[in-house]
User: What shape does this take?
Amino acid sequence: MSPLAGICVSSLIVVAVFLVYAFVRGSPGLRSYILTRLLLTIPMVFVLVTVIFVVMRVIPGDPVTSELGPRGGEAVRQRMREQLGLDQPIPVQYVRYLGNVLTLDLGESLVFGNRPIIDELSERFPATLEMIIPAMILSAGGGILLGTYAAKARKRAVDYGLRLFSITAYAMPVFWLGLLLQVVFSLRLGVAPVAGRIDPVIGIGLERKTNLLIIDSILSGNWEALGNVLHHLALPVLALGLILMGVFLRLSRINVIEALVEDYIMAGRARGIEERTLVFKHALSNAMIPIVTLIGLQVSVLLAGAVLTETTFSWPGMGLYLVERIGQRDYTAVQGTIIIFALSVAIISLLTDIIYAFIDPRVRY
Assistant: This one.
């Protein structure tokens, strides 16, 4: 089993365990909601993969002509059309395409020796995953804490400063921020690497089981490699995380401010409960409901931002892979990468809706 297939299977197992737990522990209303949401996910995924199929066939240009250019005769072109299945009627292509998606058979690369796309993405997907998870933790965790602190210090200098930071951070293009971090920390200060996931010399000696280098370093007990991976990871995560931190900061601030004027907060103050406890425990817990929804929605933004971030830092993930293969006109690689991105967003959307319903019973009715 390829690393990408292993990650997909592991993710599906985690999702299934969570769904079973929510279904068993939930009320009848929650169970009905989970079943409804699961049934709605099937047509959503179907629509996503159908849109990808249609778009890849209506965009201007013939994949065979784009790939071969002036090279090759009609026999070579016909052979490539047969290899891609483009010689078949559209309905036949569509049915074969759906079957391939169900089995994660994404075709073969047109550029690098007909290598299976699933094998190439198995090397790239873990790199993207290893970047966007810490970026999400940084943006959500930092934004929620700073937003709550800004709400606590409302209309003070700290509040105005944090609000200005949130607007500035969200307004900055991620590639510009990435280049700025490279100039300051890599070229000027020399404290961070410019590109890559790990130094080549250290990477050769690291046994790769999952291609998630942090996990592989821990499993093999290679602490030098772990430190080197985290060193390379710092700037891309910082660039991607800071951009989205502003969104979480503003949303957290608004919702905590609204919670602080509720009657239960006033009653807590009257009973002499410490203000810090009221803000960070009671007000924040009630303000988390819309924030949970935002976390799920921002995953798609992270995936889009990963394309620019990986290009800026030469990070060998799916974003850089997609840009490279678009430039090389690798039709099957582009289609396969977009399918994986779309399926990832669909799964995250499903989880977000169910977690939201688990926290807030009102969405079940």
Notes: Residues 1-111+331-365 form one domain.
